[in-house]
Each structure stands twice: as structure tokens, then as C-alpha cells.
Model the fold of this input.
Amino acid sequence: MTTRFTFDCPHCQATTIVDEGMRDLLLEDGCILCETTVSMAAFDRTT
Ligand SMILES: [Zn+2]
Done:
């Protein structure tokens, strides 16, 4: 089972479903669209 998260960028309108690996990349590199630094708060775990 893969844990999935809803990414909701606090800066632009980007919303996307990501897995844990993608989430870690976003936390490291920032939003794929606007390159804003994102924190854990931008992610909601999906069930
Ligand atoms: Zn963004």
C-alpha cells in the first residue's frame, strides 16, 4: 500500500495527488510550478 497525499500549494493554485517519494521531492525542491518552498502543512494525507 502506498500512502498518498494531496498537495495544495500555498502560493499558486496547484493541487495534485502525490506519493511519499514525490512529497519528499516537493519538500526539498519546492512547488513544481512556482518553486515556492512548501512545508508539511501543504500536504493532506488521503485515505
Ligand atoms: Zn506553487
